[in-house]
């Protein structure tokens, strides 16, 4: 008799479990660039129960539900929001929001979007070409500035480096080197970028060495002894930071292969506020600095 009750109980529990059905809202696609976008949607059910996993199905083929194309990175939540990186330029994509409960998948209606073509800018002063990154109300160069001044005075304050990491600039001239139509971004512009990428406001406004946890979304790769840290980075933002380090006053490498340092135009007493990235850390430094040579990412004038 007990055996019958147990079987009946298991049957009823499974029946109750399968009664939980989810409705996935149509995804909202925002901030589409040549290689990324942001997706968000909500999941509903009558019991206010959150599904086991949430994610999306992305394909270049319409109505494609193959599990190999499904990514389910989030758990037990009724809201999904994420940047989708590594997309192809000028490509039409078909996307569905997906949640999973047990072995059952629930899909939203399909949405379609097309990534933008790659925008580039050529610096007429030296012929170097830069990718343009588009963020809400902001455009940034996708690579570090490479320009080296002709003036003897400026050459003393500029250290030329390899093509991939760009040049290094002294703080005295940092706000004078971007090409026409571009400028050295302010601390506020850096803050707006960090907030868009998901840093909490309370963290973003700290003047500290390690704020938030989005550095991994901005790094492209580490070098040398720090290649082993590449597993933790994903460059979801497309900002593609390379650990160029900085140059000392004696023209020696500091932090190369592990860290990156960027000037902002915002002064604090006799210093400029910089951003410091370390491939072994989750956060981003925001500190006053001067006296050595750092990299520059130019922002486009509005």
How would you describe the overall organization of this protein?
The chain has 302 residues and is mainly β. It folds into two domains: 22-114, Immunoglobulin-like, CATH 2.60.40; 120-300, no CATH class. It has four helices and 22 strands. The chain has helices at residues 2-19, 152-156, 187-196, 201-204; strands at residues 23-24, 28-30, 37-44, 53-59, 70-75, 79-84, 92-101, 104-107, 111-114, 120-122, 129-135, 138-141, 158-159, 168-170, 182-183, 246-247, 253-254, 259-268, 271-278, 284-289, 293-294, 299-300. Strands 4, 5, 7, 8 and 9 form a five-stranded antiparallel sheet that branches. Strands 1, 2, 3 and 6 form a four-stranded antiparallel sheet that branches. It has a three-stranded antiparallel sheet with strand order 10-11-12, covered by helices on one side. The longest helix has 18 residues, at 2-19.
